Amino acid sequence: MDHFLYRDGRLMAEDVDVAEIAASVGTPFYLYSTATLLRHYQLFDEALSWGPHLVCYAMKAASNQAILKTLGDAGAGMDVVSGGEYARAKAAGVPGDRIVFSGVGKTEEEIRLALEGGIRQFNVESEPEMRVLSQVAESLGVLAPITIRVNPDVDAKTHAKIATGKSENKFGIPIAKARAVYAEAARLRGLKVIGIDVHIGSQLTQLEPFELAYQKVAELTEQLRADGHEISRLDLGGGLGIPYARSNEAPPLPTDYGALVQRTVGHLGCEIEIEPGRLIAGNAGILVSRVIYVKEGEGRKFLILDGAMNDLIRPAMYDAHHEIVPVVEAAAAAELSPYDIVGPVCESGDTFAKGRLMPPLSDGDLVAFRSAGAYGAVMASEYNTRPLVPEVMVNGDQFAVIRQRPTFDEIINRDTIPEWL
Ligand code: LLP
């Protein structure tokens, strides 16, 4: 559920009229709802309330400082995957002991940054990384708390580009090798082994792959304990999907997921961490765009928007479906007709939808892409020198620009001309 609902035929973001924000900010822009972000965080928090836990928001989904501060102030931890994300989490006031560091290629500099600034744990993904981490920690005279990410060889049944839990994927260490790797970790002097990490993919719409993976983690916990390791924390990753198309069957809810976690690993007495990104931010954000032209093509109509693939890459990259709705609803009786919905970028891939049934729309009308809060703004670029799309946040009846649209001069002045020119 989200807080982008129609009132008297006009799309509202909580209690703010989306068209009014568009008039003040210009289009395109991302718009986030504070209430939706908090509700999604709280749903997970409640779903795990049967035991000690921390919901670490996977901030790669949407990492604006205002979003991080909203969630961090509510008690969320953060899952970071780069030095930049670590710095962002700290800048938003999240304490180090609520930050977990994931990612397959952490550099020495990133490791040092996190060890010096404070960290809850590193989720280690390989033996070479484990050795470097130990060396850096020793050189700083500290112990690095770690889990090791195991790859359970489970099919997440999601898009190939976002599945991570099969043995052919680059993530984690094969679960069959885990006992040997934990044995080495225990010998390394800069490390303190505290648990196990697993993450099998994103936009999972069934519970079964989670169940298979978590059962394997439960078995491994018992084996590793028998080997003498202290396993007190399980990081179970993120990945729970959201309904992108209203017609589709809805994916399981956080409550179902929480019950599954309890059923599979609850008996082990471990502290549970999860790393949801999409489910927290996805339906908490929309992308608002304006129709530049309605163009009659050969046997089809194009809706040419001022938003493009550089602003929202998901349809071009994953063939993702986003609902596209008018910001001001047409009369109830209006007939739907098919449109190809495209942006102005010079590639045919700059297509959001083909033959999408829409109510009549004209030049200048506003549309909103639903479910665009996760992996939207963070994956935007300035391709075609289109200014990085701004971000706006609503809270009740107030709104604020949380990232400005850069001016052309700001964009151009980021370049420097070498002195020989
Ligand atoms: N933890 C780890 C280690 C991850 O790699 C990810 C996502 C998450 C947590 C959060 O997963 P979520 O709850 O958001 O599904 N750009 C793609 C999604 C990439 C996901 C990458 N990793 C998209 O737009 O669909």
In short:
With 421 residues, the protein is of the alpha/beta class.
Describe the protein in words:
The protein is globular, with a radius of gyration of 23 Å. Strands 4, 14, 15, 16, 17, 18, 19, 20 and 21 form a nine-stranded mixed β-sheet that branches. An eight-stranded parallel beta barrel has the order 5-6-7-8-9-11-12-13, surrounded by five helices. It has a three-stranded antiparallel β-sheet with strand order 1-2-3. Helix 9 links the parallel strand 12 and strand 13 (271-274). The relative contact order is 0.16. It contains twelve helices and 21 strands. It is α/β, with parallel strands linked by helices and 421 residues long. Bound molecules: ligand LLP. Ligand LLP binds next to helix 10 and helix 11.
- Molecular shape: globular
CATH topology of the largest domain: TIM Barrel
Question: Count the strands?
Answer: 21
Number of domains: 2
Instruction: Give the oligomeric state.
Output: single chain
Bin the helical content. Answer: 25-40%
**Number of discrete helical segments:** 12
Report the uncertain regions: none
* Secondary-structure class: alpha/beta
Question: Gap between N and C termini, in Å?
Answer: 56 Å
